[in-house]
Specification:
This protein is an alpha/beta fold. The chain has two domains: 110 residues, 3-Layer(aba) Sandwich (Rossmann fold); 175 residues, 3-Layer(aba) Sandwich (Rossmann fold), CATH 3.40.50.720. A six-stranded parallel beta sheet has the order 7-6-8-9-10-11. A five-stranded parallel beta sheet has the order 2-1-3-4-5. β3, α2 and β4 form a beta-alpha-beta unit. α4 packs across α6. The two termini are 41 Å apart.
Length: 314
């Protein structure tokens, strides 16, 4: 094995990490070709948590000591499988949830107050003396939050301060300052705005089904800042086109990057390219935790932010 620990970065969008790691580690990038010659040297794998891990590759790396998830979410990682093989997993919790909540609030504002549509209308010359867009007030709007974890709680505080009414639902009850709906369908029926802020796992793929979308209804707004796989995207698109759902504001998609053509004729949408948690400060926090966990792993010290629960509640 080499004297400098070797690290394998898996996803191309994590390439900028190379500049921060290569002074201390030998860095390989998977998209440049599987580093067969370094199989025995690689001691850590760096991944983005939303992508499924390559189990066959992991099994071919005999000296792998750490699976370091750069992000807070780790729904693509089979933690139990890693644990059974003695492979610890780390992540970056508590770094960007406030930023994601900010973005969710921005999506609500952009959709409900027609901010994006107004910008397009004005740039196209559609603002004339006899045209005035009227939008609903946010005061009194009923916001249902799916998953009252860090993101959901941070968003609840924001929308409450803006005079909106908050309720929530997740499979597990917990102490909260806001009422919990009896079921997801009840939450959707009793909400003007439904925000998806829960974790994704094998048990809740497609959680926001056609039935839930129909319960939200033709005046409802669906916001997703969690994972695209939580929403039945085909059902969502059909409901928007049919008018069975009023609006959607999405930061995440079933497949990413999503195909722009898929959304070209879908009305009443505000779309952002999975940027809710991507602030300068959040990325710096993730990088710091990554570096600390790598150092701890190779120094034989306790990991700074290990994943301890394979399927944490939302």
């Amino acid at each position: 094995m080499t004297h400098r620990p070797a690290i394998l970065i898996m996803q191309r969008h994590l390439a900028p990490l190379t500049a921060f790691l290569e002074a201390t580690y030998t860095v390989y990038r998977f998209w440049e070709g599987p580093p067969v010659e370094a199989r025995d040297d690689i001691r850590a794998m760096i991944v983005a948590g939303e992508y499924p891990i390559d189990k066959q590759l992991i099994e071919r790396l005999p000296n792998l000591e750490l699976l370091a998830c750069f992000t807070s979410g780790y729904d693509g990682i089979d933690v139990a499988w890693c644990r059974a093989r003695g492979l610890p997993v780390t992540h970056a919790p508590g770094v960007n949830h406030e930023d994601v909540a900010d973005h969710a609030l921005g999506l609500i504002l952009a959709a409900r107050r027609q901010i994006v549509a107004g910008d397009r209308q004005m740039r196209a010359g559609g603002w004339t003396a006899d045209v005035r867009t009227i939008t609903p007030s946010l005061h009194g709007q009923r916001v249902g939050i799916v998953g009252l974890g860090r993101i959901g709680t941070a968003l609840a505080r924001r929308v409450e301060a803006m005079r909106m009414r908050v309720q929530w639902w997740s499979p597990r009850d917990r102490p909260a300052d806001w009422p919990r709906a009896a079921s997801l369908l009840d939450l959707a029926r009793d909400s003007d705005i439904l925000v998806v802020a829960c974790r994704a796992d094998d048990d809740n793929i497609g959680l926001i089904s056609r039935e839930v979308i129909d319960a939200l209804g033709p005046d409802g707004l669906l916001v997703n800042v969690a994972r695209g796989q939580l929403v039945d995207e085909a059902a969502l698109i059909a409901a928007l086109k049919d008018g069975r759902l009023g609006q959607a504001a999405l930061d995440v998609f079933e497949d990413e990057p999503t195909d722009a053509a898929r959304w070209a004729d879908v009305p009443n949408t505000v779309l952002t390219p999975h940027t809710a948690g991507a602030t300068t400060e959040a990325v710096q926090g993730m990088l710091m935790l990554l570096m600390q966990n790598l150092h701890a792993a190779f120094a034989g010290e306790p990991l700074v932010s290990p994943v301890t629960d394979p399927s944490p509640a939302s």
